[in-house]
Specification:
The structure holds 2 protein chains of 2 kinds. Chain A is of the alpha+beta class. Chain A has 18 helices and 22 strands. In chain B, strands 1, 2, 3, 4, 5, 6 and 7 form a 7-stranded parallel β-sheet that branches. In chain B, α3 runs parallel beside α6. The chains are: A alpha+beta, B alpha/beta. Chain B: Pathway: Sulfur metabolism; hydrogen sulfide biosynthesis; hydrogen sulfide from sulfite (NADPH route): step 1/1.
């Protein structure tokens, strides 16, 4: 067989000396705020992306200035848990080293900074390091931030699940010292060869996402991950997981060989075998994944291309353990429980709705100040949710009033929140994301206003509908798993997707292509009208649209999604 | 002697003439050289010039007029004097001090000097050499010389007209006799200068024989009327573009202005400046007129011409730059003790005129004044000079400028610099009166291999854009190094994408930038220069020319000090020797400044 030409990124990885590339040289040059094209791929492995303010592109061109480059850095926070002390550092960094003066909670339970000038990157990463945080492998062709249900109610089970997530995150970190050398000024260790025991020299063919779900909650949207672990408990104790694999959202408009997909069920594994299976799935993907066509490099395509059974057999072979039949679990709600909830440990937990995850001081809503003030007095921890919200967790009963007072004072609590808004998410998109074709975060709150109004008009406000919007089909806000999915095509234009299940167990399907707000709302107006009168008892909106034939059900994404 | 070893001191030629001769002869083959030498010898023996005006027409018949000028004012006064003298039948030798061969001094009978003073009593660049020579032991006795000095200066500075005073004192000490007492002019020099021109021609009469008049310009100094468009007769050009080139969050507004010289035939060299006439802003004119309770339509006379008051203030009178004389007059008119006290203190008045415009004075210190009094009191509007930011090799009939909009807010009023606001708010197609102000003290090296080091923070980067355009057009291979600085990288990196392109193409060898406000401690170009001491010293050893453009008050001094430090650290020179080293570079035209 003749040698095939690999995807460009593969050569970049090979030539990078384990992710070093010429990042240091790029940092040293003061003439541009950007990195070279090759390094722009490598810096992702260090946790950040190069972006520019797209609102200013044309203006700056006329000003004979380069685009306003800045960097988006995503921290690695397994399970989304950090201490109040860490939060205070995170907060301080955003005010001193970024131009966005905000912190953005993400759909993968971490936070990211926008608007970091190149000259501040090193100081920022060192600041995170002092707070025992890092951004290693938060992006790039590696195992990304491991998600874990932050459920503080069943705190014992959660603690056990979290320990697994944390272990997976730590165990699957790249071993290269590039990060330590470049950002933390650690010395080069002479005479020691870099070895990446799991990844090898070229890491994975593509990003790799993992989540640990604790049923009945499916806030982590476990089926949208490359590898998911659904906790199975007996008498409140964790005994193992149902392993699911092959999920992923990203696709390209108009290219039917790309498609979103939900993970397949593979069976039950014991807690003690989690590492073996995780490594097995990752190394099969490492060795079998498509390194020629980058668009087809995610695990979901590997499973489709090699077949479910062949993949399963290979994983079992490498793990040295067989899957047991999957256990019955109930997969329920993907939303968060807003407000105060009491956990079994008699501590209280306050979930705050953060619209689009943007923590920023705005007139009347001093969210960033509010969280800072809370962090100064809070004795528990902070938990970032996969719906871009924040939980003030582990509050003693006697401290509730003070925390709540602060939350109300700063507009973190007290807003009237529809069920739909509470279940809905949007990605960042314009102006910073280079991939965005349309608005998401900046426009989404207004769009949800319209949806709320339509639901009210048809008397269906009590029904939560999962609405998600992204600026492009790469799927950061998991739009293909939304009952109403809107994916940007062009400024002001979206594809409208319908028919996903409320719980995240079935994908949606395109209903209308490239339409504008008025048309989207007109469609929803009609569908909400029918839903109000024709729905079965307890029927969710996504299921309804499939039943009445507005869209066909997507059961096998490779066949059904584009059909 | 080989031509390349020829220097002004060893020949009867001025440095400028030597340079020209070198340049001309370098283009000739040996056959051509032989022919030229024969031709010149024959012409000389017939006592004629070979089409080139000779410097040495009989000195006894000649008035030599020398100017030392930074901004062109001195040159303008000298040129006008030359024209008047010529009209009186004198033979006139007109030259920049920098082009003048000091060995000729002994032969002079009448020497008229126009020289300005800058900063803390410093001589303009082209006057430095003559200034030093006259104080040195080499200076000859000048018993037969009659002279007069017109000194230009700014009375808000401590060492007002110091360079002029120095020349006066030294010539006198060498035995020369003053035709008139030194005339010290403030920023409103025009009337006093005109008066001096007339008086000094009268005073020179007994000492000079008048013959058929001719004006001889030495060296490359422009001959009067070289172009039909001059300061007095500017070309009405068209603004093509006035584009802001600082980012939207910048706290300064810098414009890239492109002007079409059309069919004017105006030419410039890189390093030259463009003189820009402007109209005062209408709102400002109205504010002054209404503030004084005057009638905008009242007729007033300016230079014997009649205008409405509004027209006179718009196009004929200076409103945006105060000067001490005006403040003093206003103190008297208004009877304000506060203003009078300010006028008493040099430092206070200096600060005052930097932070006030005439409209502010009118508002703060009410006085009764007639329209006629007002126009007499205000000095004539003067054009502003901008270092040209383009090369005609690249932009042909266009000329580009880099203009910082001077703006300030005082007592609720936006105050603007006259010319910068005029250019910044110019619409496409707007007419602007311009002329070229040559600057022979800011020229690229003749040898294309010679490395160049350019230090141009802020709008001081303008002539280096012109340099780079010229070098690319000429295909020069020598190394080039630019130091640029401004407050913020994202907002104030003037012409960023152009420098990036020059770097990428290898046309610019190095670019070091200092963005002062992007970190806790302020970093300026002089710090970057200091960081690069070793490399920079190596460049100097390789014959690099150093150019500095921009702020004279602080930047140019700090950069100079940084360079001197490098000569001390890297070259092992004493502080004095290091100064002398750069003095030598300066006299060899390897260290040139365009500072303001």
């Amino acid at each position: 067989m003749s040698e095939q030409k690999l995807a460009v990124n593969e050569y970049l990885k090979i030539d990078s000396d384990y992710l070093r590339g010429s990042i240091q040289e790029g940092l040293d040059t003061q003439v541009t705020g950007s990195f070279s094209d090759g390094d722009q791929q490598l810096i992702k492995f260090h946790g950040f992306y190069q972006q520019d303010d797209r609102d200013l592109r044309n203006e700056r061109k006329e000003q004979k200035l380069e685009p306003l480059h800045s960097f988006m850095l995503r921290a690695r926070v397994p399970g989304g848990i950090c201490t109040p002390q860490q939060w205070l550092e995170v907060d301080k960094i955003s005010s001193t080293l970024t131009t966005s003066n905000s912190i953005r909670l993400t759909t993968r339970q971490t936070f990211q900074y926008h608007g970091i000038p190149k000259r501040n990157l090193k100081t920022l990463i060192q600041g995170l390091d002092r707070a025992a945080l890092d951004s290693i492998a938060a992006c790039g062709d590696v195992n990304r931030n491991v998600m874990c249900n932050p459920n503080p109610v069943e705190s014992k089970l959660h603690a056990q699940a979290y320990a697994v997530a944390k272990h997976l995150s730590d165990h699957l970190l790249p071993h290269t010292r590039a990060y330590a050398e470049i950002w933390l000024d650690e010395e080069k260790l002479l005479g020691t060869e870099t070895v990446e025991p799991v990844y090898g020299q070229t890491y994975l063919p593509r990003k790799f996402k993992m989540a640990v779900a604790v049923p009945p909650d499916n806030d982590v949207d476990v089926y949208t991950n490359d590898l998911g672990f659904i906790a199975v408990a007996e008498d409140g104790e964790l005994v193992g997981f149902n392993l699911v694999a092959g999920g992923g959202m990203g696709s390209t408009h108009g290219e039917v060989e790309t498609f979103p997909r939900l993970a397949d069920d593979f069976g039950f594994i014991k807690t003690e075998d989690v590492t073996k299976f995780a490594e097995a799935v990752m190394t099969v993907q490492r060795d079998w994944g498509n390194r020629v066509v980058r668009k087809r490099a995610r695990l979901k395509y590997t499973i489709v291309d090699h077949g479910y059974e062949a993949f399963k057999a290979e994983v079992e072979k490498r793990a040295g353990v067989k899957f047991e039949p999957k256990r019955d679990v109930i997969i329920g709600d993907r939303g968060d429980r807003y407000g105060w909830v009491e956990g079994i440990d008699n501590k209280w937990h306050l979930t705050l709705f953060i619209e689009s995850g943007r923590i920023k001081d705005m007139p009347g809503q001093t969210l960033q100040t509010g969280l800072r003030e809370i962090a100064k007095i809070h004795k528990g921890d902070f938990r970032m949710t996969s719906n871009q919200n924040m939980i003030i967790a582990g509050v003693a009963a006697e401290d509730k009033a003070e925390i709540e007072g602060l939350a109300r004072k700063h507009g973190l609590l007290g807003q009237v929140l529809s069920g739909t808004r509470g279940h809905s998410i949007a990605c960042v998109a314009l102006p910073t994301c280079p991939l965005a074709m349309a608005e998401a975060e900046r426009y989404f709150p207004e769009f949800i206003d319209h949806v709320d109004a339509l639901q009210a008009k048809h008397g269906i406000s009590e029904q939560s509908i999962v609405v998600r919007m992204t600026g492009c089909p790469n799927g950061c806000a998991r739009p293909f798993a939304a009952e109403i999915g809107l994916v940007g095509k062009a400024p002001g234009r979206y594809n409208l997707y319908l028919g996903a299940s409320f719980e995240g167990t079935r994908l949606n399907k395109m209903h209308k292509e490239n339409i504008q707000e008025a048309e989207i709302l007109a469609e929803l107006d009609v569908l909400f009208g029918r839903y109000a009168t024709e729905r079965d008892a307890g029927e969710t909106f996504g299921n309804f649209t499939v039943r009445i034939g507005v869209v066909k059900a997507v059961n096998d994404a490779a066949k059904d999604f584009h059909a | 002697m080989l031509l390349k070893e020829l220097s002004a001191l060893a020949s009867p030629l001025s440095q400028g003439q030597v340079d020209k001769l070198k340049q001309f002869t370098s283009e000739l083959s040996s056959v051509q050289l032989a022919w030229v030498s024969g031709y010149l010898a024959a012409t000389a023996s017939q006592g004629q010039t070979a089409g080139v005006p000779a410097a040495e027409t009989s000195a006894a018949q000649t008035v030599t007029i020398l100017y030392g000028s930074q901004t062109g004012n001195g040159r303008g006064v000298a040129q006008a004097l030359a024209a008047k003298a010529q009209a009186q039948g004198y033979t006139v030798n007109l030259a920049s001090m920098g082009e003048y061969n000091v060995r000729q001094l002994k032969q002079e009978t009448v020497l008229l000097l126009v020289v300005s003073t800058h900063g803390e009593g410093e001589a303009p660049d082209d006057a430095i050499e003559l200034h030093k020579f006259l104080a040195s032991k080499r200076a000859p006795k000048l018993d037969n010389l009659h002279y007069s000095v017109l000194a230009l200066g700014d009375s808000s500075y401590e060492f007002f007209c110091q360079t002029g005073k120095d020349f006066d004192a030294r010539l006198s000490a060498l035995g020369a006799k003053a035709l008139l007492p030194i005339v010290e002019c403030d920023v409103d020099y025009e009337d006093a200068a005109a008066q001096w021109q007339d008086s000094v021609i009268e005073a020179a009469k007994p000492h000079i024989q008048t013959t058929g008049a001719s004006v001889t310009a030495i060296g490359s100094a422009s001959v009067v009327g070289e172009s039909q468009y001059t300061k007095q007769n500017p070309y009405s050009a068209e603004v093509l573009v006035s584009q802001k080139i600082t980012g939207r969050d910048s706290d300064r507004d810098v414009r890239h202005v492109e002007i079409d010289l059309g069919e004017s035939g105006l030419t410039y060299q890189v390093g030259d400046a463009l003189g820009v006439w402007f109209s005062n802003n209408e709102a400002l004119v109205d504010e002054v007129i209404s503030g004084l309770g005057l009638d905008a339509d009242e007729n007033v006379t300016v230079s014997k011409e009649s205008y409405s008051l509004k027209a006179a203030l718009t196009d004929k009178k200076e409103l945006t730059q105060l000067y001490p004389g005006l403040v003093k007059s206003w103190a008297e008119l208004s009877g304000s003790a506060e203003l009078a006290a300010i006028c008493e203190d040099k430092e206070q008045i200096r600060q005052f005129i930097l932070t006030h415009q005439f409209a502010d004075v009118v508002a703060a210190y009410p006085a009764k004044v007639s329209a006629a009094q007002l126009v007499d009191m205000l000095r004539p509007l003067t054009p502003r000079l901008y270092s040209i930011a383009s090369s005609q090799a690249e932009v042909e009939s266009e000329v580009h400028l880099t203009v910082a909009l001077v703006e300030d807010e005082r007592q609720g009023h936006a105050r603007f610099g006259g010319a910068s606001h005029f250019l910044a708010s110019a619409e496409e197609g707007q007419q602007v009166n311009v002329y070229v102000e040559p600057n022979n003290n800011f020229r690229l090296p003749e040898n294309p291999e010679t490395p160049v080091i350019m230090v141009g923070p802020g709008t001081g980067v303008a002539p280096f854009r012109a340099f780079m355009q010229q070098r690319v057009a000429d295909g020069v291979s020598g190394n080039s190094w630019l130091f640029f600085g401004n407050p913020h990288f994202e907002q104030d990196f003037l012409y960023q994408v152009e420098w990036q392109q020059y770097l990428k193409n290898g046309d610019l060898s190095r670019l070091d930038v200092a963005f002062s406000r992007d970190q806790a401690h302020k970093v300026y170009v002089q710090h970057r220069i200091a960081e690069q001491a070793e490399a920079l010293w190596q460049w100097l050893q390789n014959g690099a020319h150093v150019y500095i453009c921009g702020d004279a008050e602080r930047m140019a001094k700090d950069v100079h000090q940084a360079l001197v430090n490098i000569a001390v650290e890297q070259g092992g020179l004493s502080a004095d020797d290091a100064e002398a080293y750069f003095e030598t570079l300066r006299s060899e035209k390897r260290y040139q400044k365009d500072v303001y």
